[in-house]
Write a structure and sequence with these properties.
This protein has four helices and two strands, in the order E-E-H-H-H-H. It is mainly α. The protein has one domain. A hairpin with a 2-residue loop joins strand 1 and strand 2.
């Protein structure tokens, strides 16, 4: 968001934006983010409850029930990572890249578990679409992990300010 002292540029001409308007829009944005955050917490609690209930009352084979439960718990972790990212934004830290990389890694792992569970349930023994999908997902996971390592080594803490980069030894 532009500061009241720096007017935004619109189509080549510079018009100052009133500070009260910027402040009001900033407050409205925070209220919307707060609402989204509350919805995410509700979704996480509901998903965790449903995952636990399904695990306890399931008539599935043990391996299938555990795979389903792990998938549900990983979904809750993804939702909480998104919530944590929004919370960091509300605290003034800007949007973070690291949580989105973690979300991507968890999502790929969830998909690998799902494809593996479906492949084992169908008893597929030949080389088919599932193996290609597993290979692609493993490649995506590797790329995301490498990006996470590179981000960690760079010392960047957010996308807000280049001065947030801390030198490392």
């Amino acid at each position: 968001m532009a500061s009241p002292t720096t007017p935004p540029v619109h189509g080549g001409d510079r018009r100052p934006v009133p500070a009260w308007l910027l402040s009001g829009l900033g407050t409205l944005e925070d209220i919307v983010y707060l609402g989204v955050s509350l919805v995410l917490v509700g979704v996480a609690v509901a998903a965790l409850y449903e995952t636990t209930r399904t695990l306890v009352t399931s008539n599935q084979a043990f391996a299938e029930a555990v795979t389903t439960a792990v998938n549900g718990v990983l979904f809750v972790v993804i939702v909480l990572e998104i919530f944590r990212t929004l919370l960091a934004h509300l605290e003034g830290g800007g949007f973070q890249l690291r949580p989105f990389l973690i979300i991507g890694i968890i999502s790929v792992v969830r998909h690998i578990l799902l494809v593996g569970a479906v492949a084992s349930a169908t008893g597929s023994t030949g080389f088919d679409h599932a193996q290609i999908e597993l290979g692609v997902n493993a490649g995506v996971a590797l790329v995301l992990v490498i990006a996470l390592v590179l981000l960690h080594r760079s010392g960047a803490t957010s996308d807000m300010d280049p001065s947030d980069v801390e030198p490392h030894d």
